[in-house]
Predict the 3D structure of the following.
Amino acid sequence: MSGIHAVDLKSFVTDSVKRVFATMLSMRLESEEPPDRTSATTGRHFVGTVGFAGAVIGSVNISVTREFAQTMTAAMLGMSVEDIGSDEEVNDVIGEVCNMVGGDLKSRLCDAGFICSLSIPSITYGESFRIQPKGWDRHDQYGFRNSHHSVLLEVYVKGVN
Amino acid sequence: MALKVLTVDDSKTIRMIVKKAFRPYNCEVVEAENGVEGLAAAIKEKPDLIILDITMPVMTGIEMLDRLKSDAGLKNIPVIMLTAESGKDNVVNIVQKGIKDYMVKPFKGEDLLERVGKIMSIEPRTKEEPPEKKPMKYFTQIDDIVVLKLPAKVTRPETVEVESSLQSKIKDMAAAQLNRMILDMGGVSETNVSLIKLVITVFQHCQKANVAIKLVATSKQGEELKGFQETSQITVANQIGEAKAML
């Protein structure tokens, strides 16, 4: 399905990510071009993922370092990084951020005629791993920066039929 | 009378943000993490308002909404959807099911309150009322000794709740002339930073109030406590009876 190539994801996704960070975390993100994949995925890092399936299938991945994931968690929960009790809280925050961006994208795809459903978020955590895109119609990467932290957002989309 | 609000969302973070938003108001917030739990809570608690997510495991918010609307006893409870999904058709379909409002994430607590304020009256807490119900569920008493039993999971929200309850309990103890406490952490499944901080905090509160305190923990937990400077000197009993004898 080539129609998916015509959908303008870039402006929509970048606005969505910036809005989620500004509203929920009171953090200002700047777009970073080209995306700094290395900074966001070096060492121990989190990847939040939500999938969507229907007239198109795909997923949204957000990668951040452990350090920034903890900063995000503290910001969203209104506490200090030292007060974060466990990675469970970090997972929940990364998952929810991913859910908001993914939900926004899913809604945009539905409005463009690509009716699909959203999955619940999942989290991958570790170091020295890389998620390789294979067989997608689109694989878009968007980079963002907050101070010295990078955020990498990847969108994978494939048309069905 | 406090307004009872049921927040149904699989994200604990979102439930916390909702709870925090209502804190200055005369509201009691009940939580559920999926549609099945949400329905059960709606039946049990008969809330005045339900704030409902859509994408959740076990049962989605849409399924829960359908069940609410088909139940004569629940169908009139106002529902505000709070979800990341904003597709036009989706919103129209859900609005037609009879909800009061549809709010799209990301959101701020004050925006949620503004929406709530449009469909019902929410009153600020009066000064006479405690800022929040202090749950005393963690406390029991054996003879004249108060036992504080920690929950299986201790993260930041539990530490805040336990500490808040402890402060009230210590006042009650002073009024009742009780001055001995056992802190039982034997049922806690994971030793983490929040737990260590909570143990230290409980000891500090007790010392300040001249309440004698002993700690009950498993042998493994006892070893783990030795690894932290602040808790390394605490004497650990393995059983309540043993701690009681030490007091």
About this structure: Chain B has a mean pLDDT of 90. Chain B is about 40% helix and 20% strand.
